[in-house]
Amino acid sequence: MTPIDGFSAEELFTKKNGFTYNDFIILPGFIDFAPDEVSLESDLTRNITLKSPLVSSPMDTVTEHKMAIGLALLGGIGIVHYNNTIDEQVAQIRKVKRFENGFITEPIVLSPENTIADIDAIKEKYGFSGIPITVDGKLNSKLVGIVTNRDTDFETDRMKKLSEVMTRELLTAGKGLSLSEANQILKQSKKGKLPIVDGKGCLIAFMCRNDLVKNREYPLASKDSRKQLMVGAAISTKEESIDRLDALVEAGVNVVVIDSAQGNSVYQIEMIRYIKKKYPEIEVMGGNVVTQEQCENLIKAGADSLRIGMGPGSICTTQMTMSVGRAQATAIYKTAKYAKEQSVPVIADGGISTIGHISKALSIGASAVMMGSMFAGTQEAPGEYFYENGIRLKKYRGMASVEAMEAGGSKRYFAEEAKIKVAQGVSGAVVDKGSLFDYVPYLIQGLKHSFQDMGTKDITALHGKLYSGDLRFELRSPSAQLEGGVHDMYSYKEPKYM
Q1: Among 7, 140, 372, 390, which residue's CB has the most CB atoms within a 10 Å radius?
Q2: Would you please indicate which residues are annotated as catalytic (active-site) residues?
């Protein structure tokens, strides 16, 4: 008889204590495959499947259109926050949905009076330097030139005006051009840029040769039936969300996340029922919940997936301030086990700061993970970088921080009308993580290695082992947790990504 070490998840999570990710470890399995054979495809909702189980949190320092576009191209999905007006949120969704057309509909534009130094600043900030030039430096104005690296690379005077270096003889295409037609023009011309102009010669869009290889570069891209990138949007249970919902659906949103800190409420149940009755084709993610009873209420109302977590986030103080919530690992296991019986995926939201935490969340029943701080320091997150003590940082704040509530975040805490707002989060900063397009592939490759160590090729098989008891776990003492990290070193250099 083969000896069995460790404990099943059922044995582990039926103890009196609640456990977090660091409290347990997964015992290794048998390896008979390479990491690249691992598939991370998983369900976001009943009817939406992602190639990568990564979701960005609907926070105003995490997800707007750049984050949503980047994650969708890499196989995940972004959920655009609602700390904005309806028109502003809809504009973010439309930017994501239009991206797949291959055209840059809001390009950075300069005027002939700008200088090469302005081009340098754009390149340093955004990583590109091919800029269309219009008479007044605005979109929908007369196109007069274009500046690329070949125009500026060997210029020593960086204060020289663009009118002196820009290329004036331009290849352009007219309004209404299809993507395939634009692609063909770029191929035949061997040009790198293609300005799109209207009948009066005014710039209305821009296209780059890089867009030609998008599908080849991002084979995991999350796309809907219209071949557009998928995107989600957060709404509250407040009355204004009815109008917000209508506008979001018209803009093409794929999944609506009802963003409530405590989702087990009559307000959310009524909102879910309303959405599913009026827009049955729209997927609804309910939450946040941490108990089986909460899950039951939202699933009965019609939720297509559930967001799990109450207070585990790095900037959240709900558990400390309100004394209500649940240890995240226990919450995931308990809710996932119940929701699985109803064929409803659960999304682990909060408390994730390493690849190992992502792997653990998936191993105890989550179908995907929603992350805030992990994405907040990337180039694609909203906000500008700043320096503190020589370290490049970006602002990151909880939606229950005083600053975020004043901007509208109190909607998710039923505190919008309250005279006295009690903070359940903080504001701070996170270290620059570089581009999402470098960071996410690193996370995905790390996950694949983790799955290999567990002896499991995909998330479906992982969940099968979880519920059969074949996946084994052990609790970790404080000393074991210390031993499992870097220790007893005089000094060491941390890897770029932990």
Answers
A1: 372
A2: 316, 412
